[in-house]
Amino acid sequence: MSETRVNGADVITAHQDLHSAQGALRGEHPGRSRNPVIKVADLGWLEFEKPDLERAEVFARDFGFGIAARTERELWLRGTFAGPPCMVIRKGRTSRFLGPAFRAAERGDLERLARATGASVRDSDVPGGGGKVVDLLDPSGFPVRVVHCGQQLPALPEQRPLLLNFGTDHRRTNSAQRPPREPSRIQRLGHVVLETRVFGRALDWYLDTLGMIVSDFLFLDGQRDRGPTMAFIRCDLGGVPADHHTLAMHLGPGTGYVHSAYQVTDLDSIAAGGEYLKERGYQRSWGIGRHVQGSQLFDYWRDPDRFMLEHFADGDLFSCDVEPGWAPMSSSGLAQWGPPATRDFLGSNPSPQRVRDVIEALRGDNELDRARLLGLLKAANS
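-> structure tokens emitted (382 positions)
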């Protein structure tokens, strides 16, 4: 297990005292590629299609996004940090997730990627122009874009963190705490979580093609010898610490979007923003709590099109030398504190579409069989 230093203290493992304290056993997945095609630097943005852009914009403002650009057919959303937008919503007949766009570190990475995959480099449609993009398909069938942006959006004013008193460290005197009841101001896109029937193939594709590395693996109880069923995957920025996960994937009967996460200032921003959303009638899926893998404070909400979005703050940052942790998959192991994970968050509420997904997956050529399905159901209830 790789080691890291925390606040100048003794050297400890990054996974010490967590549910993922154990590392890999001999012969298990190493969590990284020996010779990836490129190494992406971050998520650029996520792409969706929705029939009602006006309704989408109302929720976006209530959730805390800024508007980067708006046309009759497109809505580009942004955070306060300088950089690319967080999301593009295109007008369409149905509500659906179109795929992620990852950000290349250099323009030359797009040329290398195009040569290795047989794709082509073309102009990007990001606001401001000057960007280039390569369009790919991952083994799950998700369209995946890799972009190199020209012009970056400038930074916007931040939501200031509250000044806190700790024990005898009194930083605030003669002043009361009154966090404003307003939307949590999104700073940036953090990660996206996807469900796939071909977990192993999809995992290797992201590691081999985009140079990402695994922070944590989860496995089903009694089935560790069959390999992991979930991975939290980060960008490899060398010695520069990166988000614990930029992408997470798990095996399941469906193929699609699970949720996306957006960083805000602090816990008060999460909580006050949550009250703002609740007062406007939006549905909280799960929260507030603190995760195990990634350690971030979280709060999950449904938008009017039933997509799940997360406010998060205070997530882990790992450099490239931290090796993967391994832990059993369970709903109780998803959080260090907070309310129990809901059926809505876990996706365990029965629906006709979910039943169709299960039947199709069990009949198809993929990685989901009866034992895997029963293990996933057990994990959702443990």
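Residues 267-279 form the longest helix (13 residues).
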